[in-house]
Amino acid sequence: MSDLVITSRPLVAExxxxxxxxxxxxxQHVKVALRMLNEIQPRATPEDFIRWAREVDAFxxxxxxxxxxxxxxxxxxxxxxxxxxxxxxxxxELNGGMGSSPQGxxxxx
Length: 109
Hints:
It contains 5 helices and no strands. With 109 residues, it is mostly helical. The longest helix has 15 residues.
């Protein structure tokens, strides 16, 4: 077993596309990684960045990793501490505790 560290997103995508037809056990990993690589763009909004961080957390559940130490909640807390995210107001707070959004749709955290 060996590890290869590639830091270039285009090169990672190229390698994944090259090995994709031959992958048997980690096929889901390759599909998810290619999809995520296509979605992630530079100069993202903080909200997009958090969404991607949550997807990375979900992707990490496909593997056992004892070295993963930063999670989406950590990213969100950091962005909030820098004032890059608006404070969260739940729809129930906006509606006087009724538990639905201002548009009348059920809010699910």
